[in-house]
Design brief:
Elements (H helix, E strand, L loop, with lengths): L2 H4 L2 H17 L1 E16 L5 E16 L5 E2 L8 E10 L5 E10 L7
Antiparallel strand pairs: 1-2, 2-3, 2-4, 4-5
């Protein structure tokens, strides 16, 4: 439940939904995700923007009930562009306030 400490608002709700889906389906992620092309812009008000790419081509769902891994073919949809707004909370830790994603992003495939 670390996401509660590192996210707030919309980002926390999205994180909770993501985690809860894996709990409900008794699945987990196996394999590897690759994160790259991170760009950060620090704003004068103490917030920051973070944009980065994710390659999910080698990440798969694995059933905790059956032990079987659901492999999927490589696809353009496995490239995801993330855009987030970060801020410091009262404990001095950067937290994610908003997070949007674009699956199949051409930016992450170049």
């Amino acid at each position: 439940k670390a996401y509660r400490f590192y996210t707030e608002g919309e980002a926390a709700a999205s994180s909770q939904k993501f985690v809860q889906e894996f709990v409900d389906y008794k699945d987990r992620i196996t394999g590897a995700k690759r994160y790259y092309d991170a760009k950060v812009k620090v704003n004068s008000d103490g917030t920051a923007g973070l944009v980065y790419c994710e390659d999910q081509n080698k990440a798969y769902n694995k059933s905790l009930k059956t032990g079987k891994t659901q492999t999927t073919p490589e696809s353009e949809d496995n490239y995801v562009l993330y855009n987030s707004r970060l801020r410091f909370h009262k404990h001095g830790v950067l937290i994610t306030a908003t997070l949007t994603s674009q699956r199949g992003s051409a930016v992450c495939q170049s």
